[in-house]
Amino acid sequence: MTDRANDVSDDIINHNDVPEELMSVVASLTSERRYVPQWYVYDTRGSEMCEELIRKSKTYKVWQHEYSILQTHADDIASKVSPPAVLVDLGSGASSKTRLVIEAMLKRHGRATFVPVDMAKEFIETRGRQLEKDYPGLTVEPFGGLYMDGVRHVAARKEAKLLLWLGNSFSNISIHQQVKMLQEIRTQLSDGDRLVLGVDMNTDREAVSQAYGHQWISIWRDNLISRFNKDFGGTMDAEKFEYCCEFVENSPDQDEPSCIVLSLASSCKQRVHFETLSLDIDFEDGEKIYFYEGPNTSCKWNLRQLRRLAEKSGFAVDAHWTNDEENYCVICLAPADVIHTSV
Ligand SMILES: C[S@@+](CC[C@H](N)C(=O)[O-])C[C@H]1O[C@@H](n2cnc3c(N)ncnc32)[C@H](O)[C@@H]1O
């Protein structure tokens, strides 16, 4: 139907009752720079596979590093908001590390409300029911949707809000959108609210290339392509796409952090048919589908860069905790004016 993806106009795509959020995936796949939105990788199967990998992997250590910090500092984090408080987990997934903060909040406040926010709606609903069984005193109100919709959803609540954004997921937001997104979040928060980010600081090239290597192929290539085929009646052959990982190193003195760039490269010139959309997409040999919207998949920060990020976004660093190796950081941000007036 068309030779170049960017020639695909919306009028020639048959929507065939495809839900709106999935049409946004079609738009990203047919845009000039083809990409997949981050959330699309995490259907229920992708979420389960990812949780299993990140907990067991000997080379991708984000889960372990963050868990060890939360084990020691969950109570400090819970103490940042006054009861009654709502715990909001952006991109909650399985909430496995969040359990430590839930426990600290219940210990401190007696009761708590937990709002997991994630596009993987069914997955967080199932996990939410389990959390309610496991923790008497906890009310779980899952929000299946995009990050910012989740933030707006809780903004008007009277209780203090503790927003968590763990698993280095904030670092997958496009570098060009990060400040804007934090600024938007800032406008939705009150003085007593806090935003806690878990961010990776590991810039060791060897460790990074092992962490993002072939162990991810079954999730980030095979499961992703099977989701494309299921959602859009596609004929994509996973074997005809090569999983690629690149580490882009920036100077630690720059505001822009180093980052990973992940993509799937077509291993030949090929046409893929999506029956549900009545759409063909042609791939040149070597043409890439990037993860995700921006130039980065996963940023690698240092403390100076994090302070600058907070400063540009209307936040100030209230506290931060690193692991023993100092290659992972959990950072608590407060509305800047609150911190300034209290010192
Ligand atoms: C890297 S996983 C992190 C899961 C968990 N927080 C952890 O630390 O283990 C990212 C999660 O964010 C969700 N997600 C990605 N982009 C999203 C978006 N724009 N809005 C809402 N959820 C999103 C995914 O579905 C996935 O569950």
TrEMBL record:
InterPro entries: EgtD_Methyltrsf_superfamily, MeTrfase_dom, MeTrfase_EgtD-like, SAM-dependent_MTases_sf. GO terms for biological process: methylation. It holds the Pfam family Methyltransf_33. Transmembrane segments: none annotated. This is Hypp5701 protein. Gene3D superfamilies: Vaccinia Virus protein VP39. Residues 24-333 form the Histidine-specific methyltransferase SAM-dependent domain. One of its GO terms (molecular function) is methyltransferase activity. Keywords: Methyltransferase, Transferase. It comes from Branchiostoma lanceolatum (Common lancelet).
